[in-house]
């Protein structure tokens, strides 16, 4: 009698898996890090600011932390040099790059791609074969990729959409590693105050008035979606929207 096929696991458990999260020291990335750790993963967080990264690791009991500037490739490889193996790589590091297409500094606008596409290229190359073949890569895009706005975010919208196309292509090029993108709507993280300063509350009030759910998403909700993408073994080449319907209005 032929042996019955072995069922594929419903999900790839995270117990003792090494999860490396760029941008894991704040907001969505930090929440993903906390939830991955709660699921049993050994989490290494990477942030721009070394003190913030160390504090996050100590406070939440992460396996380790690193500091690097994802726009400076020469800082990425050394930061990863002594990491033997990564099961799940999450690339969320980035900022809100805005500026008029007609007169913003080109180097500033270029940052949208440096933080996203080129940071991903350099990080994946730096890790090379240390990235497990049965593991995953998760990128970040955002609601602007589907629902552009007129306030100087055209280059950021293009860079966000590019991450989604990049993930689909890498899902083939790096197979059997899975590669996905999370596309959040406006999410209540430190990024908002950092970007908007004193205008944060007025901006949030105006925006939530237009949203189907009347509220922003939370870092915890987006972080849970990151953990879903890394742990569900059949999610691949996908863009997962977690925006409360923001792209519909
Ligand atoms: N919040 C939203 O509404 C929203 C919506 C769509 C997409 N996104 C995207 O989601 C990602 C996470 O956003 P968030 O809201 O969680 O932001 P956040 O709270 O500001 O966290 C950003 C994280 O990225 C790190 N980072 C920023 N620039 C870096 C650089 N050049 N090199 C290395 N690390 C860097 C930060 O480290 P330090 O703290 O040390 O600077 C921090 O860990 C961003 O790429 C953002 O564009 C956010």
Notes on the structure:
This protein is α/β, with parallel strands linked by helices. It has one domain (18-241): NAD(P)-binding Rossmann-like Domain (Rossmann fold, 3-Layer(aba) Sandwich), CATH 3.40.50. 41% of the residues lie in helices and 18% in strands. It contains eight helices and nine strands. It has helices at residues 27-38, 50-60, 73-80, 106-127, 154-173, 190-196, 200-208, 219-231, and strands at 18-22, 42-47, 64-67, 86-91, 131-140, 178-184, 187-188, 217-218, 239-242. The strands form two sheets. A seven-stranded parallel sheet has the order 3-2-1-4-5-6-9, sandwiched between helices. A two-stranded parallel sheet has the order 7-8. β1, α1 (27-38) and β2 (42-47) form a beta-alpha-beta unit. α4 (106-127) runs parallel beside α5 (154-173). The longest helix has 22 residues, at 106-127. It starts with 17 loop residues before the first strand and ends in a 7-residue tail after the last strand. Mean pLDDT is 95; it is low at 1-9. NADP nicotinamide-adenine-dinucleotide phosphate is lined by residues 23, 25-29, 47-49, 52, 68-71, 92-96, 115, 140, 142, 184, 186-187, 189-191, 194.
């Amino acid at each position: 009698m032929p042996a019955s096929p072995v069922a594929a696991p419903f999900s790839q458990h995270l117990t003792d898996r090494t999860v490396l999260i760029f941008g894991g020291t704040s907001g969505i990335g930090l929440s993903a890090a906390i939830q991955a750790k709660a699921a049993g993963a050994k989490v290494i967080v990477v942030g721009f600011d070394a003190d913030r990264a160390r504090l996050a690791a100590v406070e939440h009991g992460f396996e380790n932390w690193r500091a690097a500037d994802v726009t400076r490739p020469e800082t990425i490889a050394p930061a990863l040099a002594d990491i033997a193996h990564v099961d799940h790589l999450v690339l969320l590091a980035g900022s809100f790059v805005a500026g008029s297409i007609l007169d913003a500094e080109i180097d500033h606008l270029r940052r949208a791609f440096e933080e996203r596409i080129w940071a991903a290229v350099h990080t994946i190359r730096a890790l090379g074969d240390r990235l497990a073949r049965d593991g995953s890569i998760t990128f970040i895009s955002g609601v602007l990729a589907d629902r552009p706005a007129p306030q100087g975010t055209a280059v950021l919208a293009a860079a966000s959409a590019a991450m989604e196309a990049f993930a689909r292509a890498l899902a083939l090029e790096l197979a059997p590693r899975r590669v996905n993108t999370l596309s959040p709507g406006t999410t209540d993280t430190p990024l908002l105050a950092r970007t908007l300063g004193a205008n944060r509350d007025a901006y949030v009030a105006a925006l939530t008035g237009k949203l189907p759910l009347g509220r922003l998403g939370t870092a915890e909700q987006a972080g849970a979606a990151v953990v879903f993408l890394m742990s569900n073994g059949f999610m691949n080449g996908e863009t997962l929207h977690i925006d409360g319907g923001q792209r519909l209005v």
